[in-house]
Predict the structure.
Amino acid sequence: MVGLATAWHLQELGTEVTVFDRADVGSGSSWGNAGWLTPGLATPLPEPSVLTYGVRAVLNPRSPVYVPPRLDPRLWRFLVGFARRSTMRQWQKSMEALIAINDLALDAFDELADRGVTAPTSPASSFVAAYRSASDREPLLQELQHIKSSGQRLEYDLLDGAQARAQEPLLSDEVTAAIQLHGQRFLDPGAYVQSLGDAVRNRGARFELQRIVERVDANSAGVSIDGESYDAAVVAAGAWAGPLLRRFGVRRLVQSGRGYSFSVSCRSTPRGPIYLPSQRVACTPIADRLRVAGMMEFSPPDAKLDPRRIAAIVDAARPFLDGADVDDRIDEWVGPRPCTVDGLPLIGATASPHVFVAGGHGMWGITLGPISGRLLAKQIITGSHGPELEAFSPLR
């Protein structure tokens, strides 16, 4: 999403583009995620509640946040830095930076729709966060209040169990309290990114698929991509970006935080996303099925799918979904979210004036991809950036 959005906006400004992808258009994290367009929830990943996870919990393969026990100094350096930034003071500072682009996020999708990206985005007429009890609801309610007090536009209502089931009959009697969010959207991420890729290709872009870029070099005239010359390069390689960027002064770690998903049949398709915050499970209607997603697994991006993680999501979601057959699963998937230690993306120039970065969005690459591409393309062409990108400098 992020790379193709940047390519589209560069074309909009008159630039010829070549797109390299290690796999295919719309693969990786852009395929199997939950497909939420939720600028109201796009918050920094390091936040105070993260510190409530004990060492025993994060080493449990069934935990929503899992760190496989292995000797990896780079990973542990990331986790220590992540924990140090999981404070309310740091969260508020990072939240202020995100609000500047959150407020523009949905407008950026409307721009793409107006100019030829045909895949739709759907208004979330119902977006319900469901809980077993009102006391379980308090942590998210407090977070929403912090989000609003930071200046983020966000509207919501409190529901009891009956009201929640009136909104979404798929919810079971286990649900006795809920929060209904307003003003959000969702999409089929695989179909949408494919449509965006088609739009970029139809405008004349050259695609190099199944192509792993090994090296980016820069000189006074431009860049070399594995020996091929270009005027500039945008590294939007997600969880694989780090090795390509170190030589250009980017010291921020981009860590793979893998998410899992699958889709199930259901008695009736929900009108919008269903969120199970206590279980860290996100559900989204895609076509005639329900995509169920979750987990944050700090494993290498190319590691194999761990079936224990799928089983943990199934067990967490099953009690809350009445009419969704979580045993009728297809498209079991794992993909690496690109996470940064401070929870903010890397968008902007590197130490080379010809090498730029677009990535590190963590869980919000779908929501913030189009606006990130718009702002970065403007910086590349004009040589200056607006205040929205100040906090996201790759050299910070």
Q: What stands out?
A: The first strand starts at residue 18 and ends at 20.
